[in-house]
From TrEMBL:
Keyword Metal-binding: no
Domain of life (superkingdom): Bacteria
Name this polypeptide is given: Aminoglycoside phosphotransferase family protein
Annotated GO MF terms: transferase activity
Length: 348
């Protein structure tokens, strides 16, 4: 961490920069993120945007501002992009885009939960986000990450990685490759269902939701991926991280559970926003509980086969461990389709 550089960066924004301190935030896989504290007692989030992933930074911020305008008009979020002294949403330094975001005080995020109130609030916040944005023109938002949650595209990437990697690497992931091939066609009907597109967050894991000190949900954060998609992407991603108290790279697969009580609380949270989904969308909610972990697992497996070029890893097999964990959760979600459907039918 180059403190001198970070000081140069924050000095470009309209904030008090006297005695600024920086603390790395390491939970994300993509951007470099720092908590910024100063004498003014205000806190901020400073991020260097990973341009290898986000190639359209201007479009990304256009989408964020468009969604935030609608959300803030309805008292949904206190999140703001701070302007530079040149009145820009970002500062460009040595081909790196930097931005500064308000830090919401007295807020907390969870990696997982065992609390039904937290699960309910997660559902309520996800539902409110979609309810408020349901009338947005999806085509007025730019596609900043093409094919992000497009499983057919991810399958093609996976198949290409099998052709390009060594036999030793493939042997080390043989069970996962077999599992992937066995389930590649399980989700074909979802992509043929002609579901309505909505403005989605597209990365709604639990730790991208903020709560206050009374465990009331506040808002979604990490808005880089806002663009059009299907409600099921946000639904399935949140379910994956709300109903299982295990890390994404959990090595002891027996620890991975699908807590049906947390799931029911989550569904009740969504339904507290009233009806905003059509009949066909509701019909495909159960399979999306397996779709999203399967897709994330397939992406982790593909990255492992490609030599860990996309996700940050702290050891060589971490992507393979992520894949194993995510595939295990996908299997549980497939096994529980009847129970999942019953809860959804009774509460949505």
């Amino acid at each position: 961490m180059d403190i001198k550089l970070l000081n140069v960066i924050v000095s470009q924004f309209n904030i008090d920069v006297s005695n600024v301190m920086f603390k790395p935030i390491t939970q994300g896989y993509i951007n470099d993120t720092f908590l910024v504290e100063s004498n003014s007692e205000s806190k901020y989030i400073l991020q260097r945007i990973n341009c290898n992933v986000f190639k359209n930074v201007i479009g990304l911020h256009k989408n964020m501002n468009k969604a935030l305008k609608k959300l803030k008009a309805n008292d949904y979020t206190e999140l703001n992009l701070l302007k530079t002294r040149a009145n820009q949403d970002y500062y460009l330094h040595d081909a790196n885009f930097w931005r500064l975001i308000t830090f919401i005080p007295k807020s907390v995020a969870y990696n997982f939960t065992s609390n039904t109130k937290t699960a309910f609030e997660a559902g309520r916040i996800i539902g409110r986000f979609h309810q408020l944005l349901k009338d947005e023109d999806v085509n007025s938002y730019e596609i900043t990450l093409p094919n992000l949650n497009n499983l057919p595209y991810r399958i093609a990437e996976f198949q290409q990685s099998l052709d390009n990697t060594s036999s030793d690497i493939k042997a080390s992931a043989n069970l996962e490759i077999v599992f992937a091939k066995r389930h590649l066609n399980d989700f074909e009907s979802f992509y043929n269902a002609n579901l309505p597109e909505r403005i989605c967050h597209n990365d709604t894991k639990l730790n991208n939701l903020l709560f206050n000190q009374n465990n009331i949900g506040l808002c979604l954060i990490d808005l880089d991926t806002i663009m059009k998609g299907y409600f099921h992407y946000d639904f399935g991603d949140t379910v994956r991280t709300v109903v299982s108290e295990s890390n994404e790279d959990e090595k002891e697969l027996s620890k991975i559970k699908f807590n049906i009580h947390l799931f029911e609380a989550f569904i009740n949270g969504i339904s507290s926003n009233g009806s905003f989904l059509n009949k066909m969308e509701i019909e495909y909610l159960p399979i999306s509980c397996a779709l999203m972990p399967f897709m994330h697992g397939l992406r982790a497996l593909t990255d492992y086969l490609n030599g860990n070029v996309y996700y940050k890893v702290s050891y060589p097999e971490q992507n393979l461990d992520r894949c194993k964990s995510l595939f295990q959760f996908a299997k549980l979600a497939l096994d529980k389709q009847a129970d999942i459907k019953t809860i959804i039918d009774n509460n949505l």
